[in-house]
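quick one, 311 residues, struct below
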Amino acid sequence: MNRGLTFDTLPPPGPAWGGSLMGTSLMATLMLTSGLRLVAWPFAILGAAIFMLLLVGFAVYRTPRFHQDLMAPWAMWFIGIMALGTAWTKLTGAHWCILVGFWVGAPLCLVAYANQLRRFSGTPNFAWGLPLVGPIMASNTAGSIAELTGQRAYWALGIGCMILAVIAAYPLFFRVYLAAFRGEADIHGPAAATTWIPLGVVGQSTSAIALLFGTRVEILVGSALLILAIPMALFAMWHFYPAVLKWVDYSPAWWASTFPTGAIGVGGYSLAQAWDLDWLSALATALPALLILHWCLCAARFLSWWVALRR
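---
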């Protein structure tokens, strides 16, 4: 049997699979944003089930350890907690969901952020940026809470978290892009999916700007960010889709292609609303299709791995 298809070559259930929690939770939010409330519910329920599975898995296997060089999976887990809380609040109107998600996920994201900045180990890779993306998700979540509750303290927290993400994530991704163009970055095999990660900070930044600063600033800064996202998306497509066609080995890295595409979808939809242009609204409506495609590809790769394993 191919070693790429065995349990012992994959991490056990736990934070390493946080990308599936992130992507599934954001799928619920994006379906709701697109007016597909009935479709959003199954993804929200699935997201909650994934959360419980990963929580129990970590309690059993105690892996990965919370070491400085393993901040990327932990960051996905913490971001996923905030994404899940946000999805359930948007679906149910219960504020406690997003509040719990924020006060659990945001402080832990800041710990992972600070820990990651101490050192970047190994070959340059886009997963380096995952702990640095956490604060922009915290910013977005804080902005949503400020909008829901009217409490200005969350507005201030959102701005602070945004600043942390901007000053660290954007320069880091620029560094990794340079390494990739020089052929020095790890973006081969399953890691090709990580080329989508930088789009997450762009999409989340656009949404956070709308929540924290209003429509005028969103139009100005958000438009520039989404223009920047075009070559980034083309770069990711150039590397990810050939890896999909090769059906590269299944790993947690596959799920790195989900959350960023959803973040761009949410950011694009918000910007389209701000511009109030029909053609842009039509384009933004089509953006969820990218997240749906990637989520389905990841799910299909999991199922094919599982079927091959059972033979």
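The two ends are 9 Å apart (CA to CA).
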